[in-house]
TrEMBL record:
InterPro entries: Aldolase_TIM, BATS_dom, Biotin_synth/BioAB, Biotin_synthase, Elp3/MiaA/NifB-like_rSAM, rSAM, rSAM_sf. This is biotin synthase. GO terms for molecular function: 2 iron, 2 sulfur cluster binding; 4 iron, 4 sulfur cluster binding; biotin synthase activity; metal ion binding. It holds the Pfam family BATS. Belongs to the radical SAM superfamily. Biotin synthase family. It comes from Podila minutissima. SMART domains: BATS, Elp3. Its cofactor is [2Fe-2S] cluster; [4Fe-4S] cluster. GO terms for cellular component: mitochondrion. NCBIfam families: bioB.
């Protein structure tokens, strides 16, 4: 191509960029998504009124990227956001993320399995279920020294949240172990770390005792949609999960609840789970997004690995519908490259588990994670001890849909 034709091409390109539609719409697009306070409602923004950008309809991700707390999401709305063109979803997940969080701050958390294996439940993904033959063998609960040493090491390595997991259905008949756990919570909270537990189902009294001990959050995942759940777990119901979550919330402990993708569920199931989470009386403080780690011996051992684009869709959709929630890029991260993880952070994830092990499976190497923070310019996120970060405030109630929430 000659120099003259190149020049004429670039002049035409500049003219096209300067045309009213291109400039106006790109500016409007950005403004509407990044300054929610500027318009009384998102529908009044010129961009949304125009309903078209570059001759295309505004994407559902863009239309919903206002960053305001809403508790009345419809499944159809979440489905449309989830199915937005991936570049749109990623961009608007990133925009919403910036409305409430420092986008460079990623919390480092540490997991410790304090009681491994031998679990009576039949969760088809789990290597700790005694229903399946896996490399995980049942062990006794760790003693106080082991747990507190691990917490101190986690703090020294930069973690600001310490999560203890036990392979139990519930705490029935475990009075003395529970008493010890209450002691662990007190000691670890005194180290100035957030403390999280995942011990199975709780009753009101146990939730109250954990609250009193200073527990920051309780993890109890929905795992998947109500419809798909019976294909994955038969030994306890979706409603039982929801009951434990309510007890945790009522005790004044932050709720950490999310799920796993890659179990063979459909997009509708993923949307269904996000719908249940985002229409709770207050959004969970924390939503872990796990990609199945298919463990040999479990019924799901042959599942195809989750693609990063599916993680990006889940994370960005969760970020848009629960804008103030910590979105945790959890199990399965070990299978993603550094650029793939960067996409997850861009989409709105702001927490990872560091340390060489999750509960029973290998995790990313600690040094590789520190290197990744350097490469991406990420900084460790400080601990936060606020309760119910996402509890609907008066202003959120007014601005989200005009109706009062429970
Ligand atoms: N027993 C407790 C319970 O089920 O609530 C706590 C421990 S359980 C291991 C915590 C969560 O880890 C599960 O709800 C599930 O979402 C996740 N998980 C377990 N095994 C997994 C796997 N193989 N791949 C991805 N996530 C997994
Ligand atoms: C969660 O949602 N993911 C973490 C935490 N909550 C407890 C656990 C992942 C476990 C992965 C499988 C394993 O290591 O056993
Ligand atoms: Fe047990 Fe929890 Fe594993 Fe289910 S996920 S089998 S309840 S340890």
């Amino acid at each position: 191509m000659s120099l003259t034709s190149l020049r004429s091409l670039s002049t035409r390109a500049i003219k096209a960029t300067n045309s009213t539609s291109a400039l106006q719409y790109s500016a409007r697009w950005y403004t509407a998504a990044s300054s929610p306070a500027k318009f009384a409602t998102i529908d009044e923004s010129p961009r949304v009124k125009a309903q078209m950008t570059f001759g295309r309809e505004v994407s559902p991700a863009a239309r919903n990227a206002h960053g305001e707390l809403r508790y009345d999401w419809q499944k159809e709305e979440i489905d449309a956001i989830y199915h937005s063109p991936i570049m749109e979803l990623l961009y608007h997940g990133a925009n919403v993320h910036r409305l409430h969080f420092d986008p460079l701050a990623v919390q480092q958390c540490t997991l410790l399995s304090i009681k491994t294996g031998g679990c009576s439940e039949d969760c088809k993904y789990c290597p700790q279920s005694s229903n399946y033959s896996t490399v995980v063998k049942a062990q006794k609960m760790l003693d106080t020294g082991e747990v507190l040493d691990a917490a101190r090491a986690a703090k020294a390595a930069g973690s600001t949240r310490f999560c203890m997991g036990a392979a139990w259905r519930d705490l029935a008949g475990r009075k003395s172990n529970f008493k010890k756990i209450v002691g662990f919570v007190k000691e670890i909270r005194a180290m100035d770390m957030e403390v999280c537990c995942t011990l199975g189902m709780l009753n009101d009294e146990q939730a109250g005792q954990l609250k009193e001990a200073g527990l920051t959050a309780y993890n109890h995942n929905l795992d998947t949609s109500r419809e798909y759940y019976p294909k994955i777990i038969t030994t306890r119901s979706y409603d039982e999960r929801l009951e434990t979550i309510s007890k945790v919330r009522e005790a004044g402990i932050n709720v950490c609840s999310g799920g796993i993708i890659g179990l063979g569920e459909t997009d509708t199931d993923r949307v269904g789970m996000l719908h249940t989470l985002s229409t709770m009386p207050s959004h969970p403080e924390s939503v872990p997004v796990n990609a199945l780690l298919a463990v040999e011996g479990t019924p799901l051992e042959k599942q195809e690995p989750v693609k990063v684009w599916d993680m990006v869709r889940m994370i960005a959709t969760a970020r848009i519908v629960m804008p103030k929630t910590m979105i945790r890029l959890s199990a399965g991260r070990v299978r993603f490259t550094e650029p793939e993880q960067a996409l997850c952070f861009m989409a709105g994830a702001n927490s990872i588990f560091t340390g060489d092990k999750l509960l029973t499976t290998p995790n990313n190497k600690f040094n590789a994670d520190q290197q990744m923070f350097d490469t991406l310019g990420l900084v460790p996120k400080a601990a936060s001890f606020k309760v119910d970060l996402t509890e609907p405030s008066e202003s959120a109630e007014k601005s989200c849909c005009g109706s009062k929430h429970a």
